[in-house]
Amino acid sequence: MVTKGNAFDPNCPTRTILDRIGDKWTVLVVLSLRSGPLRFTELRDGIGRVAPKVLTQTLRRMERDGLITREVYPEIPPRVVYTLTPMGASLIEPISVITDWAETHVPAITKAQAAYDELA
Amino acid sequence: MVTKGNAFDPNCPTRTILDRIGDKWTVLVVLSLRSGPLRFTELRDGIGRVAPKVLTQTLRRMERDGLITREVYPEIPPRVVYTLTPMGASLIEPISVITDWAETHVPAITKAQAAYDELA
DNA sequence: CCTCGACGGTATCCATTGGTAACTGGCTAC
DNA sequence: GTAGCCAGTTACCAATGGATACCGTCGAGG
């Protein structure tokens, strides 16, 4: 009845992690850092319009989860560099599978939506 | 700079679909329907405590996106059966990749969180 | 009778969250 | 002196998520 794990138990940590991964910004941060470390503003500019507050929240969470590291260089102006940890990098593959699926099915979904709205 | 697609463009449909897939309940609905059609209450009971309103919203969205079908049997008491479409079923694989990742990394993430909170 | 429960939802309300806009501090360049 | 850079933070507000209660219709049970 239940999957191999127990994602159906609300108290299961898998569920929490699933939520985390499913987060819009988390996915985009991972993809952004794919090709190397970035600074805060580089992330902000690379990801189409994120509120800095939200980006900070996302990055802190990801740091806490061990997906990225945050290195602060106490210079003026300040410099903070975010880097994927090996665990964070291991997320690229699963995320790619999802984005591939999404891109493949965009036309079908758009079409389904149009059909649905048609007879509404 | 950008992935194969353009998930970084906020107006890109891929982004919308990504949000959809990332949705907590959508994932659980797909997994629930994996082994066959289910009725509303079966879904509700199978997924650890969902508010009916939220489940309805989720199901309507998924129906609109062409991931599931909704069949109403005008009986008393009413019977409504939800079934994965082929497209919906094609989501099982990608989702499994993610859940596998999540389950594999639960210990590491939990450990990372503990370490982070330790020195906070 | 008449009330109770099954089913597939709505309706209402509140808490949490996502997001916007403005501001901070410290230094450097104009 | 004042404008700007970076990496945020601090209000503040709108939207969303979620809990709870309720609806109509019917057959079953008392």
Give the structure's gist in a few sentences.
The structure is a homodimer of 120-residue chains. By secondary structure, chain A is mostly helical. Chain A is built from 6 helices and 3 strands.
By CATH, the topology of chain A is: Arc Repressor Mutant, subunit A
Q: What integer value in Å does the Rg of chain A equal?
A: 18 Å
In sequence order, what are the helices and strands of chain A, one letter per element? HHEHHEEHH
Poorly predicted runs of 5 or more residues of chain A:
none
CATH homolog superfamily of chain A: Winged helix-like DNA-binding domain superfamily/Winged helix DNA-binding domain
- Our estimate of the beta-strand percent of chain A is 5-15%
Keywords (chains A, B): DNA-binding, Transcription, Transcription regulation
Protein name (chains A, B): HxlR family transcriptional regulator
InterPro entries (chains A, B): ArsR-like_HTH (IPR011991), HTH_HxlR (IPR002577), WH-like_DNA-bd_sf (IPR036388), WH_DNA-bd_sf (IPR036390)
Pfam family, one (chains A, B): HxlR
